[in-house]
Amino acid sequence: MVLKVLLSESLSNEPLSVSDLKQFVYCPKIPYFMHVLGFRERITECMKEGTESEDRIVRLEERRRKLAKKLNVDVKLFDVNLYSEKLGLVGTIDCVVVRGMEVSPVEFKSSPKPKKVSENHLIQLVAYALLLESCMKKVSKKGYIVYEKSDDLLEFSITEKMKRYTMKKIEEVKRIIAEEVFPETRQPASKCTSCGYRKVCQPYIPKSLYSFAGVYKVPSKRGTSERLGE
């Protein structure tokens, strides 16, 4: 019992990565698989493509710098590592744009511009804005996503409401990890196609599957209809 309490406290004090938050919004089960059960994601073809792109770092960095010129600013910082003890959050931002006392995160996606920006990409941007405000002591009211394949740059307003929503989601992820709460959610099949956890996941996971580990808990039934920016 003492060991479990100490472990929970350790997990709750460990900083959450923005990547964990993005994965949580995509599917709440992923942080549970990663941090509670210790599963590692199977590499899918989509992920291989992303990894191979990262290996061509010289060409990508040159392209990123060219795309960033669209922002018409003098100060641009690339691959910025940030940690906020206050937020309990850590992350690496592709690019940071500085305009006086205002800072803006810029994310680069290898995909073409989608018809609708996914919520997990948007919440990633807001989380980076929170990190920038906490670490750089500047205001962050805008964020950008660059879709490299279509050479599109999208600008987003980052409101206080969006920041509060993101903070709420950060606490939800921390709770799942610290209290070992399995999130009972069902996702559209389209999300599962390229997911590296597909082999260990089902739309409905029976309680018996995790009973051997002694970590299964039924989460409280709360509405989850709220979405970022709504």
Question: Helix share of residues?
Answer: 40-55%
Strand content: 15-25%
Query: How many β strands by DSSP?
Result: 6
Mean pLDDT: 78
Radius of gyration, rounded? 19 Å
Structure description:
The protein has a single domain (2-211), classed as Lambda Exonuclease, Chain A (Alpha-Beta Complex), CATH 3.90.320. Strand 2 (75-84) and strand 3 (89-99) form a beta hairpin. Strands 1, 2, 3, 4, 5 and 6 form a six-stranded mixed β-sheet that branches. With 230 residues, the chain is an alpha/beta fold. It is built from nine helices and six strands. Residues 1-11 and 206-227 have low confidence and may be disordered. Helices cover 43% and strands 19% of the residues. Helix 1 (2-13) packs antiparallel against helix 7, helix 3 (29-36) packs across helix 7 (160-179) and helix 6 (119-136) crosses helix 7 (160-179). The longest helix is centred in the C-terminal third of the chain and has 20 residues, at 160-179.
Short description:
By secondary structure, the chain is of the alpha/beta class.
Protein traits:
disordered N terminus, Lambda Exonuclease, Chain A, 230 residues, 6-stranded mixed beta sheet, alpha/beta
SSE arrangement:
Layout: H1 2-13, E1 16-17, H2 18-26, H3 29-36, H4 45-55, H5 57-68, E2 75-84, E3 89-99, E4 102-109, H6 119-136, E5 142-147, E6 152-157, H7 160-179, H8 189-192, H9 208-211
